[in-house]
Amino acid sequence: MHRWGLRWVGWPVKQKGKARQAQQEAIASGQVQMIVGTHAIFQEQVQFNGLALVIIDEQHRFGVHQRLALWEKGQQQGFHPHQLIMTATPIPRTLAMTAYADLDTSVIDELPPGRTPVTTVAIPDTRRHEIIDRVRNACTTEGRQAYWVCTLIEESDLLEAQAAEATWEELKLALPELNIGLVHGRMKPAEKQAVMQAFKQGELHLLVATTVIEVGVDVPNASLMIIENPERLGLAQLHQLRGRVGRGSVASHCVLLYKSPLSKTAQKRLQVLRDSNDGFVIAQKDLEIRGPGELLGTRQTGNAEFKVADLLRDQAIIPEVQRIARHIHERYPQQAQALIERWMPETERYSNA
Predict the structure, then answer these.
(1) Can you tell me the mean pLDDT for 2-26?
(2) Which of 144, 117, 106 is closest to 243 using CA atoms?
(3) What is the pLDDT of residues 151-160, one digit of tens each?
(4) What's the CATH architecture for 2-99?
(5) Four-point Cα dihedral 161, 164, 165, 171, nearest 10
(6) Over the stretch 231-283, which tens digit does the pLDDT of each residue have?
(7) How many CB atoms lie within 10 A of CB 29?
(8) Which CATH architecture is the domain 118-276 placed in?
(9) Are 155 and 166 in contact (CB under 8 A)?
(10) Annotated domain spans of the chain
(11) Residue 180 CB-half CA count within 13 A
């Protein structure tokens, strides 16, 4: 940014007091032309000076509320901020056309060069000892690294998921010849970063982790992943986790270590992962199994349930519906407003987001 004469500022999550006040004043006065931050920049006390462009990364972690908040901050000074929204989570085309109907969408559906497909198998936890032997062989004989993913941090009486800390202790006893690390969301950032760096540099053979490794981890030498209790995670999250392996040129494997018995739905979902490495195929199957509300995660205002339509039944006419809706919104705003007030009175503001 300095090359172009632009001043930018980062917005750390834990910044407080005078430092935060000084940054707010610099942003409001226009001294700063670019702001990089988290949800903190949506706060009411943060005022911009001519907000014209908003880039949101990992859109699936944001809601329509945040999009609207930034749009309104630009509106206060007569601007209509452009929005570029990115997500690594594949979304079925029909769902994207309804949930993000106001946005032009582009899809990057090819793997980066050098990536290899991941072979996925589902194995009951009664064969846990076999999987431990497989980890030993991969890390010693083959010289590879592995992930062991758990879904909870501490033991719970309510959930039967294996806790990462308990699994770490178990694997240290079962695999004394391996260097095993542990990482989870409750660790201090510096501690977590140190463990991840050690794994990336090859100092650790096996990394026991929670789903904090879902994104932002790139270790090409890691070719084996075990995911405990996969039936407790969504298909999109499982696909994201599986993407931590297969980042090098060697054959990679993902083991879904489930607890029997599985429900019919859980069996279908795990079969989808076994059958495909294509995120969009997986997302479409997830839509068919769970429906749009579940697929998008926590329900967000603006992602209203349909009154008449059914995404699966009506997917052939969705493009035409989108075209007609855009036409009415642009050419007949009064009629569009009347339709919104009639069918979605609580969400009328979101037609602007």
Answers:
(1) 67
(2) 117
(3) 865 555 444 4
(4) 3-Layer(aba) Sandwich (3.40)
(5) 100
(6) 888 888 899 899 999 998 899 999 999 999 998 989 999 999 999 998 888 88
(7) 10
(8) 3-Layer(aba) Sandwich (3.40)
(9) yes
(10) 2-99, 118-276, 315-352
(11) 23
